[in-house]
Each structure stands twice: as C-alpha cells, then as structure tokens.
Amino acid sequence: MNMRASVMQHSYRQLAQALDSDIRAGRYQVGERLPSVREFASLKQLSVSTVIRCYRYLETEGLVEARSKSGMYVADWKVRAADQARTLASKTKLTPPAVEYDKLVSLQHRMTELYSLTAQPLQLGLHLASAAPEWYPCDALAKIAQRQLRQDPMLIGVYPGGTGLPALKTALIQWLKTSGVDLEASDLLITNGSTEALSVALRAVAQAGDAVIVESPVYFGLLQMLENLGIKAIEVPCVPGQGISLEALEYALEHQTGVRAVVAMPNFQNPLGCSMSEKNKKRLLRLIEQHDLALIEDDVFGDLSHLQHRPQAIKAWDRQGRVIYCGSCSKSLAPAFRVGWIAGGRYQARINSLKLSTSLITPLFEQAVLAEFMQSGTLPSHLRKLRERLAATIPLATAAIHRYFPAGTQVISPAGGWWLWLELPEHIDTLALLRQAVSVGIAFTPGSLFSGSGKYANYLRLNIGRPWGREMEQGMKLLGRLAQDVA
Amino acid sequence: MNMRASVMQHSYRQLAQALDSDIRAGRYQVGERLPSVREFASLKQLSVSTVIRCYRYLETEGLVEARSKSGMYVADWKVRAADQARTLASKTKLTPPAVEYDKLVSLQHRMTELYSLTAQPLQLGLHLASAAPEWYPCDALAKIAQRQLRQDPMLIGVYPGGTGLPALKTALIQWLKTSGVDLEASDLLITNGSTEALSVALRAVAQAGDAVIVESPVYFGLLQMLENLGIKAIEVPCVPGQGISLEALEYALEHQTGVRAVVAMPNFQNPLGCSMSEKNKKRLLRLIEQHDLALIEDDVFGDLSHLQHRPQAIKAWDRQGRVIYCGSCSKSLAPAFRVGWIAGGRYQARINSLKLSTSLITPLFEQAVLAEFMQSGTLPSHLRKLRERLAATIPLATAAIHRYFPAGTQVISPAGGWWLWLELPEHIDTLALLRQAVSVGIAFTPGSLFSGSGKYANYLRLNIGRPWGREMEQGMKLLGRLAQDVA
C-alpha cells in the first residue's frame, strides 16, 4: 500500500464507504448495534471526529440511526430506500461541490471557499481553527447540560431576552480579571461567537466607505467581513514574534484618511501566533488615543499561551473606553457552543442595539452550561492541560517540517494557539500546492488568503492542534514531498 | 387587598423578595430542597416563567443553587456573602435600569428599550413575542437533547461548519412542503433565528442609502434593523384582515426611487394577524417581478393558523428566485433554541457569504434536537394543540377587552398567531398608558412603535399567547380601567 492511499483510506468518506458496503452486504444486520464513536475510533485508530463525520453521513443516507440511550444502530435501510424519506435524503446528500480554487483568493469568497474545503474527503483538515475534540472537556460539559435539561426542561419554552445570562456574565467577569480586565455586567454583551462580536464592533465604529487598519498577515475571515461591510482594510505589517509594527502603524495613521479603528490580536495573533510585549501594547493604546480611534481587540487565543501564563489584554489599560474587547469559548473551551462576548467601552450602547437587530439574542442554553462549568472551578486545570498539549506538539511538528519540507522552509513558531506559519522557498505557490494536497486528503490555508494584496503566496498556515502521531507525521511527510515536487 | 396590589405581588421580583426573606429568616434551611418550578408554580398559582425568573434571580444573588439531578436548594448564602463571589454577584445584580420612555419611539432604540421593559417587575409582560412555555413540547425536546448529549458528548468539541445540519435541512425541506415550498438542501441556510435571516436578507439586496418597502403597521424590530443598516423604510398601509394594500404598493413603486425590495409577512402579519389571499399573494409576486425587486417573505407565524390549515407561502410560486423566504422555530416550536432558516433564491450565495462573516455558523446542538423532533413525526400534533389553544383564547380575550376597555375600542382579531391589535379612542396616547401600566406590572407594545411616522399613537398590541385565567382577566380589567382613567 503506498502512502498516499494509506492517508486517503482513513478519511470519513472512505470509512463511510466501507461501512456502507458492510451494511449492504449484510455483514451488519438491520437493528444491530454499531460500535460507539470512541470504540470505533480506537478500533480503527482514527480520530474521533472522523468517526463522528462518518456516522453523520450514514445517518443522512438512512443506513444507520441513533437510538434512545444506547448508541448507533443499523437502520432498516431497505424499507427506507423505498419510501419518500429516501428521496429526500438524496436531496441533501453530502456530495461535496468542487472547490473553486480561483474564488479562494477573492475577498468576497475566501472564507466561504475555504469552508467548502471541509466538505472534501479529507484525512487531515488543517485549514480551519478547530483543535481535536478530545482536547476539550466534552464529558463534563455534556453532564452539566444533561442535568440542566433534566432539572428545567421548561427553559426551552422561554423566549430569551437581555444581553446575556447573568450567571455567565458573573463567571466571565471573574475570569477576565486574569487578563487584567475589570468589567461590570452592563459592560458585557454575549454574542454568537467572536465573529458576531467582531462584526458588530466594526459596524459600531465604521460605515461603508470608511477604513480600518488590520495586521498583515491577517485572519482571512476579517478581510471577507470588511469586504461585505464595504469597509476598506489597510494592512500594516507585523514583525514576526512581536505583532503589528508600531512604526508602520504610526506612519500609516499619519498618511491615511478615513481610518476609524485598528483591529488587532495582541495575544497569539492569527496566523503568526505571537504576542505583543506589555510595552508595545501600551504604545499601541496611546496611538489609538492620540488619533482618536477605536481599538478592536480580538483576544480569542489569549487563554492558549504555551507558557502557563495568561498575558494581559490591552483592554486592561483602557481608561477612555476606546478598546472593544472580543472573546470566545470556541477556541479554549467548547467549540460547538458558539458563545462569544464583547466589552465595547464607550460604544456599548450602539453595540447592544446592533446585536439586537442582527440576531436578537444568543441562546441561553449554552450560556448556562458554560456558566456552571466556569463556576465549578475546573477551567484552570482544563486550560493547563490544553496549553501543555499545544506546547508539546510544536517541537514535534517543527522537527517534522524541517525533516520533510524543501530546504529553506522557515517555521514561525507560535507562543500560543495552534498555528504554524510556514514560509516556503519563494517560487512555491501554496495555492497550487493546496490543490494537490486536497487531492490526497490534506488541507491547509494558503498564505495568499491572509492579505488582500497577493502577498504571502509562498506561505501557508497549518493547524497543529491535535495529538501528534503517525497520522500527522505521515501527513507532513506527504505534504513535504508534494512541496518538494513543486519546488 | 386591592386589585393593583394583587397583580403586583405576583411578579417574579415579589416572589423572589418573599423567598429571599424566608431564606434569610431561616424558614428555609441552608441545604434544604426548594419546590420544583412546576410544584412552586402550581402552589402559588403562578406561571412557570415567573417561577423560573424568580429562581434565576435568587441564583445570581447566591441564595439558591441548582444541584446535580435533583433540583433547587438553599445555598450556603452566609458563607457566600463573605467571599468574593458575593461582591461579584452584586456587580451583576438585576437592578432594572429605568425604562427610557422617551427613547422608546426613536428608530434607533425602539427595540432595545422595549426589551428593557422585560427587566421591570412585571406580572403580565404582554409586549414581546413569547407564548407560555408550557405550550411548547419542552419535555420531549429536553429528552431528545439529553439522549444526544449522552450518546455523543464529543460533539461539543467539534468546531461546526457548513450552512446547517443536513438532518435538519432534510426535515425542514419535508416540512416546508406543507407551505407549498419545494427546496433542495443547497437552497437553505440555517440562521440564528429569523432576525439574522432578515438581517442578511436585507444586506443581500440593499445597501446603505437604498430603500425597501415595509407594511404599515410593521414589526418595530424591522424598523430598528433598517435604521441600523442605513436603509430607508417606506411604509405602505395594510388593509386590516387582508395584508398590504396592493393598490398603495403599486402607487408607491411607481413614485419612489431606490427601492430594492419589499419586506412582508403574508401569513399572520405582525401586529395585524391577518393573511393575504392566494390571489393577492400572486399579485404581490407579479408586482415584484414587474419592478425587478426582491421579496423578503417573513413567515415566522405561518404555522400558527387558528384554523387547522397551513396557508401557502409566496415562495411556493416563485419561479424567478426573487423571494427570500425566512422562517424560525422560535414561535411555533422551541423559543429558546434561536434557530431560523432562509431560502434566498437567486441571492443565496451572497446570503451564505454574509452569514459566514456575521456569525460564522449556527450552533449544531439545537439543530440536531430539532431535526430528531421533526423526524419523530410529532410536530403536527404539537401544532394542532397550539393552534387550538390560540384559537380558544381569542374570543375570551376579545370579550374581556370589550367588557373593560373604553367604549369605542376596536379589537382587530387575528387569523393566526397571538397578537391582538387594539384601536383605542383617538385621544388615548398608548405610550402614556404604558408608563402607568408598567407601574402596576403590565406591559404591552404601544402602537407608535409600529411606524416611523408617529402613526398608531392610540393603538396597542397585546400578546395573548398564554392560558386564559384569573390572571389575564384581572390584567385586562386593570388595563381597561387605566385606559378609562386616561380617557
């Protein structure tokens, strides 16, 4: 078996195909219990998420079904095939549309198209911001959720109101003190993830036709968001290891008009993974004040320092209410919950109004579960473990890349989070590399997405937030070889 | 005991105050189990939601705590009082800020301020779109949710992607056939409630400076949303019992420039509760086509016909992809879930991109629970019951209003949903009436919020979506008397 085939065969689609054949051939009987997600993952030496995606796919196909209390079973698929449900299921079939690589770098589509990669038969999807599910306290959160549902089912019937669940606000206020941020409940709004937080923050300070300054390289989602809002993005370069260049920023502020805000990730920037020093954070804030601007501080990776030390947020020194602080539980605690928060300083009233007319309210259920988890006091120990895991993976990944990638490849190592930012030899176009990588089941984010200017065409971003093992080692080997071939 | 006091004393704050005193006086011991929400509601003859709000309030105050499996207990409040948690809790104290009645009618604030009413000590909050929690299948949904969490806790760790859970899309596609709407999975995007659906729909078809046509009277949330997007709202009058006047619409379309779309609720309009005839629906669609516009069809109340008959959506006849159909489970099935959907026709790609850069993704957990509930086939029987309850309440509410309100009060009865739209004698300013009503624990929505023009100052909207009983009868009596006094 060659290596490419071995990587391919473990994708969820390959797994689903094998199980599909087994079921149709009668090797699993109708009504027979299938292995649990965990059992199956350990049996096949696959990641939990691959098995989850496989079961989800077969459920849509009508081949398996989840049953009360006890797991996944082979569905009565012959009967289903006959009835209308079958025709319907075929309408929602997960036939992945082809990735439109040409659109991938368009400002309007870069995020949409990158997401469309996820639907491809991938073995290693290293392109998005998802760490391994088993690195999160899923069991503890699920237990809390079950208990709350048992105790208060009626809450499902209550139309929610307000700017966030008071209990979650209380827990967050206490937690944010570890970032040096001191808030009251009315300073805080709970959002549908940090994406919504960023979106309402931008709308609160800028209108179509205005400009904001962003870091370069920068999270591509922000570029698509700005494009959709009609706001111009002015890219100011980062100094690797340090964050946004304050000299370049000062120059830009003196020469650009119509700038309303700076958007920055002072802690563990996406994709560079670097943090600004305290001194530079304070300098940045002074620049904001001097130029009468707002600072939108995206701190979603702030809790994921590889050292056991939580860096301060710039919001900690904000005396004029100019810093709009955005955070989320999606990276550090519960990816599926989609709960974020925003502390908008002097812009809070406008932000609250915009949120209300964007999505009314954030679901309270996930908020209640998070609140109880945070109150239980186990967040610090969860984060300690997560940070250790991330820190342990970096040297392994870096070594593998140096082993397999073309000579001259530079690895920008992060101080927090799970990104590796790779600079490949100059003639390697990582968008072309991506096409080939996807065809063998690996995805990453090509560098050109991190700027609107065509920069970073020989860079790429890798998500290494998962247990290091044979799968990742083989993946790096394969990816390195593809890059060698292009080189 | 006079009537005002009797209405007052049942608000959740009054209940919480009483319980607070009982606990501090030692009538409930630390560690003692408190009655369940249901027991307490039945004991005190209060609504379930009042008790829920009371317990939530006391939990924030550190006086009670929820415990694993078995209910609500008296917390060790003396100890808590001493520690830091207490200071923090006080920061998030639910001291309701005063309602800024002057802001209530400002386009920028009408929704925000109306929501702020909810924080007041209300006995009868008839101002928002929430029906009684006990009218929803909370137990069934909670059971499904618990089972799913038990079976697949790992899903909490999976970062979601895509335009919605395939299983929910399958179930919705089948369900929407009852509205005459025939969709494929790729035509559909799951949103954070219908508010997000409306917001991305508007952004897909219009920019700041453009205009859209809305019905008059119209849902105030739409007016605040348009204001926040910088889109001009052109109000076209409705014919009570029929919906938007097509003659007036035709005239407006011939005389207004910059119009990009019409936003309408052809089924059970908010606040009028009326449905358009099939003939008029088709005429409206033809006008849209002739003027090269989009139609944003808000169908959130479509399932709540008081007859056991689901009217068609205009989307059913849309051959050119001009109708952007918006729906939600918040009114008909699970208010707390905040799951909506949008089928955007020719605008779908733009809508998907806007959603991605507004909130990335809608949480999958609630989607999975809804999907399983819908697949179980019990949605029709739930809706049958809900419709019967709504239909049974209308004549009781109408009779009570005629009994207690000033002579000349007209009640516009709905054909679906839970709104009563009241026209009071011309000299009665319902905004002034609201101030007085809130001071005795009753809230409604004053008519002036349903237009940007100052119209409908002597109208008001009441939500009667709750069991009719002494509480509501007394409330109508009190409200009628206040209106008499103003008259």
UniProtKB/TrEMBL annotation, chains A, B:
What molecular function does GO assign, one term? Answer: transaminase activity
Q: Which Pfam families match?
A: Aminotran_1_2 (PF00155), GntR (PF00392)
Q: Which SMART domains match?
A: HTH_GNTR (SM00345)
Sorted UniProt keywords:
Aminotransferase, DNA-binding, Pyridoxal phosphate, Transcription, Transcription regulation, Transferase
Lineage, top-rank taxon, reads Bacteria
DNA-binding keyword on record: yes
User: Which residue range or ranges hold the HTH gntR-type domain?
Assistant: 9-77
The Swiss-Prot or TrEMBL record describes its family as follows:
In the C-terminal section; belongs to the class-I pyridoxal-phosphate-dependent aminotransferase family.
Q: What is this protein called?
A: PLP-dependent aminotransferase family protein
